[in-house]
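Example record used in the benchmark description.
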Amino acid sequence: MNTKLSRGFLLSLVLLSILFAFVANGGGEVGDKNVIYVLKIDGTITEGTSLDIVEGLREAEEKGAEAALVELDTRGGLVDSTLKITEAILNSEVPVITYVAPKGAIAASAGSFILISGNIAVMAPGTTTGAAMPVEIGIEGSKPADEKTINFYAGHMESIAASRGRNATQAKRFVTDNDAFNENIALERGIIDLIAEDETELLNKVDGMTVKIGNENRTLATRTASLYLKGKTVRSSLLETLGNPQIAVILLMIGIYGLIFGFLSPGTYVPEMIGAICLILALYGMGFFDVNMFGVLLIIIAVILFIAEVLTPTFGILTTGGAVCLIIGALILPKGPLLVNPQWFKDFLVIIIGIAGAFAAFFFFAMGAVLKSRKRRAQVGAEELIGKITKAETEINEESGTIKIEGEIWNARTLAGERIKEGEKVEIIDREGLTLIVKRKE
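Model output (structure tokens):
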């Protein structure tokens, strides 16, 4: 029996080892050189996105992949993260194909920088690219960055396009004039190299094309290549989440209120711990911005006003002021410049207003109720029985008797001169030690 158990245990270990190796390799071994690494960029481009792409390109180089395929569907994102991605693509030792896909996808703002940086740039039908003017956001909404910043990124876009043999003048207009093109105009203006319905058509079309990698010309053999989808690592997924401005602001609010609840309810250490962790994560996420100290000050003032509301009832006046400071402060924090689509700011604004409203409502109602309950006189033991009604278990007079209340038998007596028969309703009006004083309930 022990032998069978040992064999079963060893077999389980072997199976688990195989499963672990399978998962660690992303579902398959990449040993064949005729493999194309697929790296996807979806949603807002953050530090996690850049880490994912940089690590993916490095792994493709180490594995000797035929090429890397960067699929784009993004409205834009953070400038620093975008520049890290374009730098990695421009210096990659494997050919990089940038592809706006699937149909209906966009490569706006930061996405257009990445699209143009590829050795071969491709778009699917029904896709759009361009509108890369950097913006700053604040309480007045989103607006173009200052002229100096725009000129710098326009020159950088022009330089990237020129290095890839693309229409540098038109690429520059993506930044200076916010031009936006569909796939046909982008091909006509020399922004992309070809249009492909899907990955299969793309591999057939780029097969045999020659690209320059450093000082070497390399001919692609992609017709029979297999695609390997590089999954996101836990680290890059975490950084991508934290680097999202919307998530960073939410974590900031949770962190601040966690500390407040911890100070109001000392002893458990749970709110303080959660608040501190969220605050650290939020500050890390906001490290990708030029944080405006006035915005931080407004958020601190908002917290003070919320605390003052629960300590000094003002019928919501201080809560309203705190909510206003919170919204303005949160909007001031992400200073920029950002390479994002205007729709991003609208989503960001909705989240901020929703957070402020939810926390204001919570402070106005929930925290007020908590503090009121704290001010009530504590009632324990027999004290909480006063005022309750039950029946007499035996005859009760001014000297003795019993009643049953909440499953327990208590000694009871009446006031001088009153006699209560067994089964009559009584009301508890006081107590003396372990004896309850009752009266007949009419």
